[in-house]
User: Fold these one by one.
Assistant:
Number 1:
Amino acid sequence: MPKLTLTTLIFALLQGCAAENVYNAAQGARLNECTKIADNAQRARCYDSATQSYESYGQGQQPKLKD
């Protein structure tokens, strides 16, 4: 049983690393799309969104708790 638990833990950690790597790799494509926006204000918002860290992105994806 402990071997299965260790394997599951390692798999879970690797999944997290893989997701962050995919996110970081896609940042270049997002930044490239921002360069195509003519409006300065929209382009600035696009850059802000495209340069958001993975940690910030993850925090924004957390479900909101209702009071």
Number 2:
Amino acid sequence: MTDVHKINRSKPEFKTLTKKEIHSAAHERVSLISQEFKEAFTFLEDLPKSVTFFGGARFNETHPLYKQAESLALRIAQELQYAVVTGGGPGVMEGANKGAFQAKGESVGLTIQLPHEQAINPYLTRHLDFYYFFSRKVCLSFAAEAYIFFPGGFGTLDEFFEILTLVQTKKIEQVPIILVGSDFWGGLQKMLKEELLSRGTIDPDDLNLYTITDDENLILDIIKKAPIRNGVPLGHFQIINPLATKECLPCEGNTAPLSHDKSEELLEQINQWVLIEDTHIEKIIQFTDFREAIRFINRVAHIAEGESHHPDIHLYEFNKVKIVLTTHAIKGLSDNDFIVAAKIDEILR
């Protein structure tokens, strides 16, 4: 007779989240992402003319592609005075940053926070560290005067096809996309012609959206002739709120709170605030350090005193500020809460 041993498996413990907790967790993440984009666009705005380099991270300093990126970036920084932007890592990125650094130009890295420290190359004159991969990816492909792609792996191809698609669909203006490494990109060009163009999934003109060349003089000429994109159009990412021009009215508690529909309507007019149980709205903002967070709190206090309408303010983890707005006299929301929220949004521009 075979002994049968039963394994006692304890049931995993699951915590049931309330609707409020789900809202709060989602809101915090959205707020942090929004803040990361805002800081990144401000950072990029200081680079009036730039070229972004993409390419494989596995090429060491003796590899011909590393040296080619170094030579090209040096000329771009030295002859054109353009900033050179990369992901700040090794390989082609390091080669490009090294060239710009040697030319005493702007050598910029948009780096990423990882569980284990990222190998950041030593040739950066300035860099911005990202937490979210996708926001870093957007910023690497944003507002440059030209994009230069060296051979690489999946990541390089992902960036190439994303930018190519944005140009093809006119989501961004047509910007020079330059593919360096004719032997590498020639194979892709052949596939696009034989498989995509022949099946009608792309148009013949789509193959003219990029240039394959190894000629440095031609590359510099293409960049020189490309229109300057005038930095980062930050206004496209901001919500202009007419509520900020209004003033709060005294609320003595003799009026009813706003209805859910009215609160939702006003919520559409403010930037990244969350409605909680129709009784209050809240927003979480992350700052670079404690001092900046305190300065923001002081500015909110100035608004609150001027409007005689005071939010609850929570400072935690040294650089995160949570603002909660409600009209205590009526135990719910009034127009005043959305007016103050709009004014707070203004100081975050």
